Amino acid sequence: MKALAFDEFGGPDKLRLGEVPDPVAGPEDVLVRVRACALNHLDIFVREGIPALRTPLPFWTGSDIAGEVAAVGAAVESVKVGDRVAVNPNLTCGRCEFCVRGEDSLCVAYGILGEHIPGGLAELVRVRGDNVLPLPAHIGYEDAASFILTNMTAWRMVVTQGRVRAGEDVLILGVGGGVSSTAVQIAKLCGARVLVTSSSDEKLERARQLGADVTINYAREDWAKAVWEQTDRRGVDVVIESVGAATWKQSLRSLVRGGRLVTCGATTGPIGETDIRVVFWKQLHIIGSTMASRREFNDVMRLFFQGRLRPIVDAVLPLTEGAAAQRRLAEGQQFGKIVLRV
Fold first, then answer.
1. Is the same domain home to 145 and 183?
2. Pseudo-torsion of CA 191, 90, 17, 19, nearest 10°?
3. What is the pLDDT of residues 284-307, one digit of tens each?
4. DSSP 278-293
5. Which of 19, 73, 117, 195 is disulfide-compatible with 27, CB 3.0–4.6 A?
6. Proportion of the chain in helix, strand, coil states, percent, rounded to 5
7. For residue 305, what is the DSSP state?
8. How far is 77 from 177, CA to CA, in rounded Å?
9. Distance in angstroms (rounded) separating the CA atoms of residues 171 and 260
10. pTM for this prediction
């Protein structure tokens, strides 16, 4: 089969579309013929090299996958060859204390398809049979691929970890990325007032179309001061944070007393300045969040299938343009997801 693989770590120029061995399905696995796979910053991080992963080379990424079942292992009964499916990218053991209590993303052996094992930027991908979800006929492959990872991540952040309630103020930083954009929709579904930041007026306008109530261009004004003014010097109830070092200090200061900061990433760096006095004096909650449980995945996908949440697609490109697509993502040009059609 063909895959968009790299033989050494580095920039998008290291990507090559070439032949790699076909995956082989075990008894509990299915092979999915990939029709669409969306990009995430994770694809960039893995391609550039994460020392702790010890990624085997050649390798290909891709976590957001939709396609058709091409082969079924002997022990799989939930799907059959030809079924249209979306893929849950969680890799879990199913046996540890966290898996048993339904907290899949806390699994002691947790991994992500496309990060810890080869992913969907290829013609075929092997996944566990219980990690595929039947895709309704009215949902296109590109829309499904664009929806999966960012929405399961944002759902856990906003609903489970952030516990956002109607009437609360929610600040979402750096709107335009996959998680931040869809977090706007989910926070509005919860009944919150949503404040967003970006350096792009175009992205802010698109955020308004998704339901954002207050938009702040941080290239033109002090965003933390603007948040303070927009909340009558109260602060927001929840900050949805994935930017990291560049915003961390002001994110904490933007919270109301007893407020919650939920973080899932650190695209500008992992070491953020924390004034511990602000944390204990305002009694703040700093909450981590990674991906989602199987139940949360099913919950958010059901809302997608019902039309209550919609995919946010920036562009659909062929797999042959994968290097250019990853370059666009790295430069932050997109609003929503870039999808590669296989």
1. no
2. -160
3. 999 999 999 999 999 999 999 999
4. HHHHTT-EEEE--S--
5. 73
6. 30, 30, 40
7. H
8. 37
9. 11
10. 0.95
